[in-house]
Write a structure and sequence with these properties.
113 residues; mainly beta; six-stranded antiparallel β-sheet; two-stranded antiparallel ribbon; 1 helix; 8 strands; globular
Length: 113
């Protein structure tokens, strides 16, 4: 079982010449999806919020609060499942789901599924 540890709370620090602050439960997601020739099919870089899921989730591996990150545009969507481990003060990414739209697949590969 491979799970990735995120060693701190997910938030976005910012500052100007006069002010600075931290936006809680917000981060930047950068994703580059490559085809078999290692050519980028889909590239995203976007701010996303960290939220608690709308439905209950169960983990038999970790005890902690469940969170999710979601991103979607016309080419596809990404869903990331995380669990906050309070004793260690870190998140564990337990699942990353990537969905590509059928239209994007057809355009990229010249098919008509």
């Amino acid at each position: 079982m491979d799970h990735t540890i995120v060693p701190k709370k997910l938030n976005l620090p910012w500052k100007t010449d006069l002010f600075k602050n931290i936006i809680q439960d917000l981060c930047i997601v950068d994703v580059v999806l490559l085809d078999e020739r290692k050519t980028p099919i889909w590239c995203i870089s976007s701010s996303v919020s960290v939220t608690q899921p709308h439905h209950s989730m169960v983990s038999y591996d970790y005890d902690g609060d469940h969170y999710s990150i979601e991103y979607a545009d016309s080419r596809g969507k990404i869903h990331i499942h995380l669990i906050w481990i309070p004793d260690n003060k870190h998140y564990v990414i337990t699942c990353i789901e990537v969905y590509i739209s059928l239209q994007a697949v057809n355009e990229w590969f010249g098919t008509s599924y």
